[in-house]
Amino acid sequence: RVELKPKSRRLRFVYKLNQNEHYAEEDVHDEKYEQRHTLSSTVVANPACSYAIGVIRQGRLTLTPVRAVNQLRPDFEDFEKLCKQIASTPGLSDVGDPKGDEKKGDANSESGGEEPSEMIDFNPVRVEYHAKGEKEVIAQPDVGDVWKRLDFFDQTSPEASDIYLQHIVFAANEASEAEKQGLTSQDPKLQDLDLDGDHISYVRGLCGQAETRNKLRLLRQKAHQAQNSGLSSYVLSKMPAERQVESILRHYGVISFPNLRKRLPVASFRSISEDALIDMLRSCGVLVCGNWVLKSVLANFEGMEAGARDLLLTMLHRKAGKLQTPEVIKWKSVFEQSVAVETLLEIARSVMDEAQDKNSWRLKAEEDKDFIRRFPAVVSEYEAWLESRRSEVVQAGKPGRGSTQASSASRFRGKLVPEVRECLLSGPKTTEEMKKLVQRKHPTLEIQEEDLLGSLNAKELDAIQVRGVWVLAGTGTESHDKFRKTLLTLFKHRDSVTRQDVMEEYERVHGEKCKLSDYIIRQQLREVAEKIEDGGQTIYVVKGAMQTR
User: Fold this and answer.
1) What digits encode the pLDDT tens for the residues 205-230?
2) Is residue 37 left, alpha or beta, with left meaning phi > 0 and alpha meaning psi from -120 to 50?
3) Partners of 2 in the beta sheet?
């Protein structure tokens, strides 16, 4: 069997010895510690090494870097426990050994009659090699980290195929599909190889003298990850198509139609037509200069704040996406009696970039003349909407200033939603765990619990709290969501469930038997629950729920 400690990432491999081989002595066949062999892992990480797993598929070479390896070595923990038990039991250590008294006397005379030494400390060990060749052995106490037995699936199972396709060759498949569509893959983990063509760089890399180049590479990677934080293809693929479109528009604020299509996962890109995509954009965006801009209401601007933003969009559309600085100052002066100056600046910077000479402001995306030419009816529709909205704002006049602080907090919570979703995709989390994970992305700003709870309860996130932990209720696939919500409903009323309980509840609620494959059912159960063997029966409990008690 194979067991795992998730927190310390330790593996333990236990297997029975073949006692028919010549090395097995007949007089030890009945000893407990001779019946099995245990291999325990040590994590070894060396940043100076550049090992990778290479896969050639569809004519493409894909390299996956290896960050660390687990070295499996014999673990004599059971043997040591048995030896200690024998040594501490009077008369047991000499059974079957005619020289036991003599050995015992010698041992006592050498040790001065001291008690047997304590057990070896079996805390997990991590070995790290630093850039200067220094070796550091780190003992990691695994308090609260228990061994969990892993399920076995052979190479013909859907799970094995999923590991191969989704974790090994997915990059080659995605790059190939993107090329067929004439696109560039947007997966943050899929990067072009940046190779040096000269022999000096090669020798420096082998000798560990490529620190400057490695630092620049890491800076580029961090900048790329920051730009796409919370919006990877994996995150988007877990949402319905409408939510994918809205999330992309929320992330960028202003984006052209072709660029938005490129950001969609490959499956959505192929299945959603241009007309269908425009219909989805109508529910969350406004067309300005051929580009799509997030609606003011969805950007959490209310009342005169929303009016000021919509009027600014109307001005940009009339001026082909460029405003002179005096025009922007005049716009601010009109609303500064009813909207805070900080909010007006936030509105301006959310849709425009200021020129270096400070003389003008431009829409964050260039005017898309191609979209205007191809879809004149859509352009006319939004021109009419912008003019009618302008009339509404002018007629509304200048009411008193509202709660600027509340509106600002609402916008901040909306910005946290993608980060919260990304955290929950790895499994259920408690509020405290979520706060720690989100706080890491905002080192200069304290994340308040009320802001986090506001994001967790946001309608677009579709998360629910079960047994003290937060779980995503929606995955983007209707058939999967029906099963998932049935499972979560059961967990609201029970500490543990069996697979049969879930199937019966599904049939009772939906009036039909669940038609999902065994593989999909196991996948949904693994994402939400932990499997426990209880008296010969397999039950499931919510992940992390035991720690909340």
Assistant:
1) 667 666 666 666 666 656 555 555 55
2) beta
3) 13
